[in-house]
Structures are given as C-alpha cells and as structure tokens.
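PROTEIN DESIGN WORKSHEET
SECTION A - STRUCTURE
LENGTH: 124
TOKENS:
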C-alpha cells in the first residue's frame, strides 16, 4: 500500500510515517518509480509505534524494542536480551509512577472542585 493509504488506515500523518522511516521504526519497499510501498503488516506496526510514543518512549528506545515484540504469528521474539528486559522493566516502572502521579493530581483536583462547590452552595 502507498503511504497515503497507510496514513488513512492507521490514522497517522504521512509526515509522521516518513519520520518513522528515517528513525528506523518503519521500512518500505520502493516501486520502480521510487514510491514507498508498505505491506499490510505496516498498519499494526504504526499502531504499536503510536502506543509506545504515547507511553513516553523515545524513537531510539522504540527502534530497539520493536524487533523484540511478538511477531504476527504470536510467537515470542528470539532476540530479546536480559538487558532489554531490564530496560523495559524500568520503562514500565516509570509509567507506573506516572500513573500514580496522575491519580494523586486527580484527587487534589477533586478536592478543589468539592471545596469550590461547597462555597457556591453557601453563597446567597
């Protein structure tokens, strides 16, 4: 599929897809005319990339991680290392800390809202 089709199917801009390619996160075959040609697998790959970016990983870490993710056949990757597992565990722990921080911030905001409502209810 051409880059425009991949953008449409994945919900990611063509510009982002080109960036992913320059970062080694995505690869395309080239047609005789030089146009990018992606396989159907690319949609899932882009969705995974987006999820990893949303989790706060940078492109270098994602490039290191992608080959170790489960293949489309569901089998585990054969290139995972103990160091990579440690790095990914640290990333997961960082995300868990961020989630905890967000819950605490939400609780503070809820307290502020409740206090403001009480003040509004007491107003004549």
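SECTION B - SEQUENCE
RESIDUE ASSIGNMENT:
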């Amino acid at each position: 599929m051409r880059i425009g089709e991949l953008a449409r199917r994945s919900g990611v801009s063509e510009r982002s897809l080109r960036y992913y390619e320059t970062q080694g996160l995505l690869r395309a075959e080239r047609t005789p005319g030089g146009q990018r040609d992606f396989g159907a697998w690319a949609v899932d790959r882009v969705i995974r990339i987006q999820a990893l970016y949303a989790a706060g990983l940078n492109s270098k870490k994602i490039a290191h991680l992608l080959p170790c993710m489960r293949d489309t056949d569901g089998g585990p990757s054969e290139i995972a290392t103990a160091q990579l597992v440690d790095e990914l565990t640290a990333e997961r722990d960082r995300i868990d800390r961020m989630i905890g921080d967000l819950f605490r911030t939400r609780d503070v905001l809820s307290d502020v809202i409740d206090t403001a409502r009480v003040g509004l209810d007491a107003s004549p």
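SECTION C - NOTES
Residues 82-122 form the longest helix (41 residues).
Residues 13 and 104 are 34 Å apart (CA to CA).
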